[in-house]
Every structure is written in C-alpha cells, then in structure tokens.
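note to self: dont lose this again. the chain is below, predicted strucutre after it. 242 aa total, dont forget to put it in the shared folder this time
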Amino acid sequence: MKAIYSALVKAQKGFGPALKSSTNPHFRSKYADLSACIEAVVDSLNENGIMLMQVTHEAENGVMIETLFLHESGEQMSAGKLFMPATKFDAQGFGSALSYARRYSIMAACGIAPEDDDANSAVKSAPPPLPKPTPKPTPVAPVVATPKPVEPQPTEQLAPPKMQGKADQWQLKISTDPGTNFAQWADAVKDATVFMLEMAQTKDDTMNIFRTNRNIYDKLQADDLVSYEALTNIFKTYKEKL
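---
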C-alpha cells in the first residue's frame, strides 16, 4: 500500500474546497452539490495516478455508498461504507439519498469541506457577550468586578454528519456525534425534513414529523435560530397545503 499512500498525500495538496454553487429553494441557501465535490478533488487525484470510484451496496430502506481509490500500481484503498436512508420510497427519494451519500462520502474520504464552513461555524460558535460588570460600592472606593476570560470556542468541525439506522416512519436518523460539522448537519436536517414532509398525507402527519424529531429540532433551535425559524415556516407551508 506504499504507492497509493504516497500518491494520496501528494494529491491532497491539490484539493480545493467544495464550492457552494447550487441553491436550496426551500431555505434560500447555497450548498455544494455532487459535481462541485468531485471537481474539488478529481483532477489532483488523476494527476497523481489515482482513480476515484464510488460503488453501491445493497441496503434496506436506503442506499449504501463505498468510496474507493484505485492507484495505477494496482493498489486500492476503501474509505468505508456510508448508509443514507431514503425518506421517500420512490425514484426521487432514493435518488436524493444516493446524491447525499456520494457527496458526504467524497468529502469525508478526501478531508474537504464546503468553501465557507469555517466562517459559518465561527459565527455560530461565538459565545454570547458577557453582561457589563456592576461596580460594588464599598466604604472606601467602588470595586468593579472583572469578568473571567472566556475560553475560545472551537471554530472548525471537520467530520460530516452520519446517517445511521433504518428509516422508520417520520424518524430522522441523523447522528450528532462529537466532531460533526454543524453546518452540514443543519443542512442535512433541513433537507431530510423537506423530503419527509413531501410524504405527508394529512396535517396530523406533519405534526407527527415535528413531534417525533423534537429533540433534533430543539438542538437546531438552540444552535442556529435562523435555520430553525426557516424550518418552522416550511412546516407551516406544508400544513396549509394539506
């Protein structure tokens, strides 16, 4: 495996960010589509004698993708398998799950992220401002309390969210493991919810989706209020359509 390891190290020096060139119409936000993820790495891989391949494996209620690197020496390396549940059991639902799985598998295997994830994470992770200290009067002179220095918060989350488990009705199977890239996790929550709402037949279905995944939405509300409010507007729109 010496040849492929050496070639991957050289290839990674030429990787670029996955450019956010596509627009999500539901949330009016930019995201890096599958072609952007491939374009960020494939030229540098090929220049160093490596072919990028993604193969599918049989999976229940979703798709399973494995990203492979094939070196001209004959050596090959697998980046592991990634399962993505289909929130809608038709061609559109499985196609969307396949696209998601391929995007996240490539980014995880190559160690890349969308172009402005670091900036977004920095904004979302910034601690709230401390209240101004109130001077405490004393018989001699006023004493001003000094706030303790705030430890800097981590601004870089490298790992993409993992889809795990089987797709039970109305249940999002999106992990929140430590180190998960929050911006990608929030996008996955929003898009998966939209796909699930498209399957709803009644207003009660929309309420069941919200109640079943309340713990996930509470986390989104706590960490990204703007995305959470956009999500509630989507719920309202689908409920009114029914």
